[in-house]
Design brief:
The protein is an alpha/beta fold. It contains six helices and nine strands. The strands form two sheets. The protein has a seven-stranded mixed beta sheet with strand order 5-4-3-6-7-8-9, covered by helices on one side. A two-stranded antiparallel ribbon has the order 1-2. It is globular, with a radius of gyration of 16 Å. The structure holds S-adenosyl-L-homocysteine (SAH).
Length: 225
């Protein structure tokens, strides 16, 4: 097998093409999202043997049976959050750390929760290597949220849930906080965008999608089919 290139300029070009062909051309219009995805080196968040595939139009395995989402899905979810530079954002499902790094480029502070300690540790190493210092990682069940730092302007769940976890609704800021979450069956979900105004939560539905399961108190039970 051909070794992937170690020349990082090669990946800058691949990244530029990814943004143009997979994102801009398919309707991702928020310039901040496009800027962040042009900036963050996605290949650093995968094993070196996958570097050659890191900018392709598909998810990639990251170990522990988990995946880093397809670039378009990362862009779509990020765009739906409408992140602003003073925002505090919470992510459930750190995985490789790629989505968190994109958010960290756009927000003031990112809080991210991962249930697999191995993945959390690896993500921390990549953040350090890329000099990203505004991300806090917690190992545990993200379906209960992270109440110490609530409320959040945005919460994004990057795993598929049977229902919307109530704690996450409660931890949204009252003045337009947004929750982006795939909800549905194990093998197929719809992306929901829920916006809070005071004690009202308004839901809109977006595209169909397939995420690995959200496993926890307010998600799927471990081993459940
Ligand atoms: N955002 C990630 C994609 C992660 S895949 C990225 O950019 O790479 C989904 C992740 O959610 C997996 O790593 C999985 O272990 C994690 N996960 C599933 N249920 C969880 C829960 N209840 N709390 C925290 N993490 C969870």
């Amino acid at each position: 097998m051909k070794r992937p290139s170690r020349d990082h300029d090669t990946y800058a070009m691949a990244r530029e093409r990814m943004v143009e062909e997979q994102l801009a051309r398919r309707g991702i219009a928020d310039p901040k999202v496009l800027m962040a995805m042009r900036f963050i080196p996605r290949h650093f968040f995968t094993e070196e043997s996958f570097w050659g595939k890191a900018y392709g139009d598909h998810p990639l395995p990251i170990g522990q049976g988990q995946t880093i989402s397809q670039p378009f899905m990362v862009a779509l979810m990020t765009q739906a959050l409408k992140v602003e530079e003073n925002d505090r954002v919470l992510e459930i499902g750190t995985g490789s750390g790629y989505q968190a790094a994109i958010l960290a480029k756009m927000a003031k502070k990112v809080f991210t929760i991962e249930r697999h300690a191995v993945l959390a540790k690896r993500a921390r190493e990549v953040f350090d290597r890329l000099n990203i210092h505004n991300i806090a990682i917690r190992i545990g069940d993200g379906t209960i949220g992270w109440s110490e730092f609530a409320p959040y302007s945005g919460i994004v769940v990057t795993a598929g849930s049977p229902d919307v976890p109530q704690p996450l609704l409660n931890q949204l800021s009252e003045d337009g906080g947004r929750l982006v979450i795939p909800v549905g069956e194990r093998g197929f979900q719809r992306l929901k965008v829920i916006t809070r105004t005071g004690d009202r939560w308004q839901t809109t539905e977006d595209v169909g999608c397939t995420f690995v399961p959200l496993v926890g108190k307010h998600g799927w039970a471990e081993g459940e089919k």
